[in-house]
Amino acid sequence: MRVVKRVSSSDGTIRRVHELDDGSLVESVVIPHKTKTNLCISTQAGCRMRCSFCESGKRFSRNLSADEIIGQIDDGLDVDSVVFMGMGEPLDNPHIVEAVERVKKEKGIPSRKIAVSTCGLCDRMKLLLPTKVNIAISLNATTDEQRSRIMPINKKYSLSILKETMQEINDSLPSRRRLQIEYVMIKGFNDAAIDAERLAALVPKKSLINLIPVNSKKEHYQPPSQETIISFKAALRKHGFICYVREPRGRDVDAACGMLAGK
Ligand code: SF4
Questions:
Q1: Is position 32 within any domain?
Q2: What is the CA(46)–ligand 1 centre distance, in A?
Q3: Which terminus of the chain has a lower count of CB atoms within 10 Å, N or C?
């Protein structure tokens, strides 16, 4: 595999397009912070989960091998942490556990600096527990009706099944680890005060919640106002959750969350 394109954002984020040996294209994103560098990598060329707010879900060609997943962490990069949050649903790839173990062993990244995100493949989530990496659940809605509209996987694993699985995972985590909840916020869709209350009731009590203002080119997917995001966060904090708003990085070069399309 080789890097065929590098695009730099005004905020320092770099979107890289990798061409695999069969011509498939996948992306990784280098995200520099003040003193460290985070790398977001892909596990599939495209994605079969078809979340409506995500460019990766528009097509699927194949799973990446463990070599291809690790190949995105080239030695020239001084990477501090790795997140499996690029193109693809990691747990839909049978090589994911091997890839995670090899990132730890071959790249020297400790498990606490690795995060794997899933849209909620409940029957496979426990596979990640022995790896001791951080587990992030892409939740994004608080009722079945709402979630099924944007995430087809909800028709297979409803919120009651996902709630039970999240609790089981939470109870199995090492004591200082927190389940991470990713919540993409869409204006007028899932950003009301009642959503914050339902979210607080849905996720395990010690979860860490990341609010992500939606990054989408679709007109009907707009991020909420700053005011709405701040009051949503305050409501969750009132319930005792640690809650952050994830600032979009690399939006101007299509490198932000939900924008990777392999192009
Ligand atoms: S959000 Fe994740 S699971 Fe959903 S389509 Fe995009 S890459 Fe796939």
A1: yes
A2: 9
A3: C
Q: Indicate if ligand 1 lies below 6 Å from the C-beta of 51.
A: yes
**Residue 22 belongs to what domain range?**
2-253
- Match 């009722």 to its residue by tokens: 143
Query: Which one-letter DSSP state was computed for residue 223?
Result: P
- Tens of pLDDT, residue by residue over 3-48, are 999 999 888 899 999 999 999 999 999 998 888 999 999 999 999 9
Tens digits of per-residue pLDDT, 125-139? 999 999 999 999 999
C-alpha 58 to ligand 1 mean position (Å): 9
Residue 259 lies in a domain: no
Active site residue 51: no
Pairing of strands 14-19, 134-138: unpaired
pTM above 0.90, yes or no: yes
The span from the CA of 14 to the CA of 12, in Å, is 6
β-strands 134-138, 180-185: how paired?
A: parallel
User: Any catalytic annotation for residue 182?
Assistant: no
Domain count, the chain: 1
Find out whether the beta carbon of 109 lies less than 6 Å from any atom of ligand 1: no
**Residue 123 forms part of a structural domain:** yes
What ranges make up the beta strands (E) of 97-155?
A: 114-118, 134-138
Tokens of 117: 């995100």
Yes or no: say if 8 and 251 are a contact pair by the CB < 8 Å rule: no
Q: Is 208 within the bounds of a domain?
A: yes
Give the CA angle between residues 196, 202, 208 to the nearest 5°: 75
Q: At 50, which CATH number?
A: 3.20.20.70
Q: Which amino acid, one-letter code, is at 139?
A: L
